[in-house]
Amino acid sequence: MGVSTFMGLQTALRGLIAQQEALDITGHNIANANTLGYSRQEVTTSASRALRINTGSSAGNGKAELGTGVDVTGVTRARDRFLDLQYRAQAMRLGGLAARVQGMETIEGALAEPGETGISQELQTFWTDWEGLANSPEDSAARQAVIEAGKSLGVSLAELNQQLTYAAEVAEGEYASIAGKGGEVEAKAKELALLNGAIRSSMTEGAEPNDLLDRRDLLLDELSKLGQVSVTEAADGTVEVGFGDAAAPLVAGTEVTWPQELSEPKGKLGALLELVEPGGTIESFRGELNAFAEGLADAVNAIHTEGGGPAFFTYEAGKGAATLGVAVTAAEVQTASDGSVGGNDIATAIGALRGGAVDRSYAAFVTRVGTEMNEARSGETNAQALLNAVSERRESTSGVSLDEEMTNLQRFQRGYEASARAMTALDEALDVLINRTGRVGL
Amino acid sequence: MTMRITEGMTRRTVLQDLGATKSRLTQLQREISSGHRITRPADDPFGTGRTLQLSGELEGFKQYKSNVDDGVGWVTATETALSRITDTVQRARELLVQGGNDSNGQVAREGIAAEIEALTEAVKQEANVTYDDRYIFSGTATETPPYALGAGDEYAGNEGTIQRVIGKGVSIGVNVNIQTILGNGAAAGDDKLLDVLRDIAADLRGGTAANAEALRGTDLERLSANIDELTRVRAVVGATTNRLETAGTRLEQLQEASLKQLSQTYDVDIAEALVTYSSEQAAYETALRSGAKLIQPSLMDFLK
After folding, report:
1. Given this model, what pLDDT does residue B1 score?
2. Reported ipTM
3. Cystine design at A363: which of B10, B52, B85, B242 (Cβ 3.0–4.6 Å)?
C-alpha cells in the first residue's frame, strides 16, 4: 500500500494542533493560577494510529508501521479524591471549632477575669464591706456600703447573664442565616444541583468538564465547613450530597431538598447548635452562674436571718444570676443576732464566707469557661494545622506552578515551531517535486 | 517523587509562618504591657482559678490585718482607761488609809469622803470612755454609756462580747466587761469597786467607832481586792494586745507569702518575657526577609 504524498503535511499539522492545544491549556493554567479550587489541567496526547505500509524490502516480512503524528486524547485535571476527603473532614472540624471559639469569645470577654473589673473582685469587695461593717456595726455608711456592694454584684451577674443570652442569640441568628430558607446551605445546594445538570450533559457528550468539576469540588469543600458532607458519585457524573444528619439527601441529581431538620450536623452548624441547644454549652454556663448566684444569696441569707431579721438577697429560683437583688434597707441590715448595736456576730460570719464554697464555686465557673475555651482554641489551632497540611498536599497535586507552566510554555512553543519547521521541510520537498520535476532542459 | 511546590504553597507557607510568629509576638506584647501572664481565662484555666482564690485570700489577709489594727486601737483605749481607773483607785486607797487614821477628826473625814465621791465619779467617767465614738465598756450596747454620772451606779451596758476576726476561723474578744470590776453600786452590795467606794464614803461620813474600824479593816481589804482584780484584768488586756500584735506580724508574713504565690501564678516574668520577645522579633524579621526573597524570583526573570 502506498502512502499519500501529502501525508507528512498532515502529520505536521497534527503536531501543530496538539502543541497549540497544549499551549492553550498552559495559558488556561496560568490564567487560573490564583483561582480558588482550580486544578491544574494537562493535555493528554498519544501517537495517532499508524499506517501499515509495504516496505518492499526482502528483509523481514516487508511490512512496517508508519507513524501519522499525534492525537489529543483529552484534557485531564490533576486531582486526588482521597485528599479531597481528608480536606473535607478537617474543614468540618475546623469550621466547628472556629465557630465555637467565636461564640464563646463573647462570654470569655464578658467575664473580664482575672482582673480588677470582674465579678471575683466585686465579690471580694462585698466580703470586705461586711468585715468593715463588723468593725463598726454602728456606722450607717458601712451598712449602706454592704447594700451597694450587694447591688453591684447583682448588676454584674445580670450583665454577665445578659452576655450569655446575647451569645446564644448571635449563635441562633447565625444558625438560621446559614441553615434557614435562602441561607448559605440552600444557595450552595442550588448551585450544586445546577452544576450536576451541566456536568451530566457534558459527560453524556463524552467530555470531561474539568472546570465545572473544580467548581463543584470547591462548593463541597465550602459546604463541609458548615456541616458533615457525604458525597456519592453516580455513573452519569452527578453527585448525591448528604448533609449532616438530614433525612433526605441535600442534593440528588438536580433536585434540592432544603430546609431540613438537623440535630447533629457537625461542622459550624453543629458547633452553633451545641452552643445554644438545651443542655448545651451556654445553658450549662448559665446553670453554673445561677448556682453561684443562688449559693451566694442562700449562704448570706442563712446567716443574715439568724437573729430573725429579713433575708439580705432576693432572687427568683432558677434565674438567680438575672434576678439577684438586695432586699433590705440600710436600717434592716443585720449585724448582730441579738440585735445589739455594737454586736457583730452576723457581719463577722458573713465576712468569714470569703474564700469559702461561694468563692470556690465562682472560681470553678471561671476555670470551666477557661478550660472549654482553651480546648476549643487549641483544637482550632490543631485543626488548622492539619487542614494546612492537607491543603499543602492537595496544592502539591493540583496547584499551578508558574515555573512549571513557563517551562511547558517553552516546551510547547518549541514543539509548535518544530512542527512548523517539519511542515516547511515537506513543503520545500514538494516544491521540488511539483515545480521543478519534469522540467529537464527547460 | 519529590513534592511539587507551587508559588501558592510558598506564598501560603510564608504567610502562615509570619502569622504564627506575629500572633506569638502579640500575645507576648499583651503579657508584657499588662504585666500579667494570664490575660484571659483560656490562657491558663487552672492558673485563673488559682489566681481568683489567691487574690481572695490576699484580700482576706488585708482585711484581717485591718481588723487587727482596729482591735489594737480598741484594746489600747481599754488599757489607757483601765490604767487611769487604777491610778484613781490607788489615790482612793491612799485617802482610805489616811481616813482610817483616828488622828483625823470627823471634819477631815468628811473632806476625804467628798474627795472619794469625786474619785468615784472620775472612775465612772473613765468607764464611759469612747473609741471611734463607741462606748468601749458597754458590751455590744456601744451607743449607751455604761454608767450614768451622779448617784445611780447601775451598769447600763450588756454582757456582749465584741469580736475581731484575726485569721480564718480565728477571732478574739477585744472588749472588757467593766461590770465585773465596777459592779452595780452600793444598792447591789456586790463588793465591786463602786460598791466599795460608796461604802468607804459612807463609813467616812458615819463617824462611829464601827465605821472607823471598817475603814481600817474590811473597806481596806475589799478595796485591795478590787485593785488586784483591776491588775488581773489589765494583765488580760495586755495579753490581748500581745496576741493582736503577734497576729498582725503573722498576717504580714502570710500576706507576703500569698502575694508571692499570686505573683508566681499571675504575673509575667518580665525579664524572661522580654528575652523571648526579642528572640521572637528576630525570628519575625528573619522570616520577613527570607519570605521576601523567596516570593520574588520566578523562572520568568531568567527566560528570554
Report:
1. 57
2. 0.84
3. B52
